[in-house]
Amino acid sequence: MINLHEPTFDLEDEEYVLKALRSSWVSTGGPFVNTFEKEFAEFVGAKHAISVCNGTIGIQLSIEALKYKQQTFQSFDIIIPSLTFIATANAIVHAGGSPKFIDVEENSFQFSIENFKNYTLNNYDYRFEQKCWVNKLTGNKLLAFIPVHVMGWSAAERQLLQEISEEFKITILEDAAEALGTYNLDGSHIGNSSLAAIYSFNGNKVLTTGGGGMITTNETEFAKHLKHLSTTAKIDNLRFIHDEVGYNFRLVNLLAALGCSQLKKLKSRLVRKKEIFNLYSKYLQSPFLSIYSQKNCNSNNWLICTVFEDFNLREKVLTVLLENKIQVRPLWMPCHLQPAYQTENNLLLANTEDIWKRTLSLPSSPQILDEEIKYISDLILFSLSGE
Length: 387
Prior knowledge:
single chain; 387 residues; Aspartate Aminotransferase, domain 2; Aspartate Aminotransferase, domain 1; 2 domains; seven-stranded mixed β-sheet; four-stranded antiparallel β-sheet; 12 helices
């Protein structure tokens, strides 16, 4: 089996983990946590980084801290693109909110700026005295907008996100779970266009700690509150006194040690990821497909995605590759079509459904061999030839 995206570890990774094990600091305390947060913040160019147990929790915790910041204690809405892994929507619900889904641009993973504007203006009234948007039907406050940097591609140019935030007076939280190592064209790292960005270190990401995630922000007080909430809101370590209902959402020292080691190798790993993208682009030359790309960023090329001419061709190639023990994956079912969000099933998000039906993610592990990429590409082209 050629797997979709395998983690890769070396002796240095093992040494870091063993050092944490031998120190006996394996749980939610220990020096590697602070080191990982500091070095991660430096890597992405943020002032602060707060480690958490996974990316989904990172989104939920950011929303909880935002609720406190905006003094929101009633029901609320958050707008997100439907083309995202369901965890984005779930985190909103876990934090007590309602996700509201919008469409992407045509032939794109990017949310549509026009759809965002139209959705907001059609469904919300701006209350100047409260300085917020309010849902015309439910009365819910519009708490935030969460663009998603799908597959490591930018959700929108940095300047555009900032303009949306300023024009609509709305807070933006960036779901950058898949986008560590993706840069804007001005050289800044993805995730610095908003109040906070959330990253994932799941086993299939470009940097993995097995689990885990990170929240980055440039606002000091927001960072302090995130850290406070994530560590059970404890204000007295001796007598265990807590001033809020907090959460035990911390990353453990054992995983942070692995994160420190993995981060040291990330730049060279991104070079290899770019090579993988270029090889697929070279080999997969056909009028029936295209390798997905965007011109608004320098992507980390997390998962190389092929967009086919139609659904039937996508399914034909999917069947052939699976039969040959090559792990490939369609995009996740869009959130508005998920049984878990069946109240949203009547939405007509044509662009989202179209790109979902025609896209296939190809094996993109950093350690994949050049000849394996050629083999996969040849199988795809053979499938399309009809022979």
